[in-house]
Amino acid sequence: MAVHDDCKLKFLELKAKRTYRFIVYKIEEKQKQVIVEKLGEPANSYEDFTASLPADECRYAVYDFDFMTAENVPKSRIIFIAWSPDTSKVRNKMIYASSKDRFKRELDGIQIELQATDPTEMGLDVIRSRST
Fold it and tell me: Contacts for 116-125 with beta carbons within 8 Å, 24 or more apart?
């Protein structure tokens, strides 16, 4: 599965310039490549992000999570989410699962990885506990 150059460029912009809050990636089966499906503005909330993931199709996503440490220091973590809802087709799940590691290697700077099959597995509480 090829990775479109735009995927890496947008990720670098998120990482270095914080141009986006999140990026949702989609595998375009006909072209056999991963493309950028949606970009979240820096002002977008986590709810905006989760709402942009389809309920019955797999996606890859990157989310720039801001939080405060126990010492009141603002921090940020880049989280990679492999979204694979139970309701998606088996073929769809297999394609995403088999391409995940190669795609993730293209995005240099991911700090946390989550695998989610329903929204509760990537709730803010889960992300907070994995980030600190």
Answer: 116/81, 116/82, 116/83, 116/84, 117/84, 117/85, 117/86, 118/85, 118/86, 119/50, 122/50, 122/81, 122/83, 124/46
